[in-house]
């Protein structure tokens, strides 16, 4: 689509006497045909006005007419028409087919859509994405699952757009809970169970410890003393803590692997305690620290400096808080990675926390705080498994797999599979991800297994099914040479509609890069699957003449390549058979 977008931008550039490259983002692809207009691209005159390319005064319809009359049709752009405040462009049909399917000759390795003028206007650099970030010995709740899949999507997207991406997991591996855990492990823990099922066992010990601590002051005191030992780096306490941490990380790594997710760095709250002092000194020297009534060190965040809104950084006993550790972590990450942007993915209940974090960083004079951003998401209710509540990530995976296997065994279309469990898990997870990504991330929703796992309608199962069907079509016709094809044989409505839709791909990626919302891509792929389904019905390969079959296969190669690339960006692992 870059080819056409650039041609139109050049026409517009001549009319407005502006360089074409600044105008490229204003040319949008339209895949809907409105009234009699079946167009491929659109210019919105109000957008041009809003961006200062046209005077904002005067009659906008008149302006639209004038602008359109200054742009001439040619062999590439065959028709220009006006509808209210919009100018529509229709490109040459043969060229549309040619240009869109050109990249797919060697369809295995194209990164279709990424080689685009529009995407080239995006800044590139080092992006640190922090996501998942579960807490040791605590529950891995739905919020952590969302953070995991959303963060993975953002990291994939940024990476495919040419950024150097650092994927970071920031574990909740410090704080009073480790005092309690350490003290209680002596009483209720077992090294053997810890090795067998670490996440489960630490969680059990922690739950029991919390229960006992309610009426056992001795345990509470032991917990405080254990945490103090930790803070003072007492070797014996530290060794046990390190064991808890190592074993947890190892276990998580293998579960993330099931999801096709990896992290470059496992960091955690414990990691930058050494830098807390440094941060406190910087705040002190800028005169930003105050002492509160109860002897804590606080930063005044109120606009009038009247302490009406403060953020505590050190308790009166000198121990740090969650935000203190985040400050130290941010400062040292910037130093270590020199990131151009840093993205934190957590549920929206932490929005204030991150606002305060960025505000304090900025008041410390760190101008890079403006390149830090929090991507908040809403709450999910009702994700239960057959055995009850979701406690671990593994529970979700097991549940998704079991339910999907069940559905597959009841479906008549299920193919014979080498590893049905593996396929069930991948298809099931894609169902979960698709459901989760369809709406705005901020929205809360109620989880429903049956709805997400449906094979019809806009689900992840439908995405996988379409992918598998394309894969088998391509497999079956491997011997057909598609390096040459005749674009005149792809002029049916079903083919043109699909190519028009593909024209929008770079725009969808562009939009996703701007607001980091996966909904643009998910909905684009779902629509693509509907178009593929229609194409399957009216553009059969089997039984067609050789040259027709060639051309149609080339079209399906293109669709398949965009679909699987898009699915991978979302964090969905495409299956070849189901
Ligand atoms: N461990 C935290 C939690 O479970 C999430 C960490 C988010 N990241 C951060 N830098 N604070 O709530």
UniProtKB/TrEMBL annotation:
UniProt keyword Chaperone, yes or no: no
Gene3D superfamilies per record: Arginyl tRNA synthetase N-terminal domain (3.30.1360.70), HUPs (3.40.50.620), Isoleucyl-tRNA Synthetase, Domain 1 (1.10.730.10)
Class of this enzyme: ligase
Enzyme Commission (EC) number: 6.1.1.19
Top-level taxon of origin: Eukaryota
Reaction catalyzed: tRNA(Arg) + L-arginine + ATP = L-arginyl-tRNA(Arg) + AMP + diphosphate
Function: Catalyzes the attachment of arginine to tRNA(Arg) in a two-step reaction: arginine is first activated by ATP to form Arg-AMP and then transferred to the acceptor end of tRNA(Arg).
Name used for this protein in its record: Probable arginine--tRNA ligase, mitochondrial
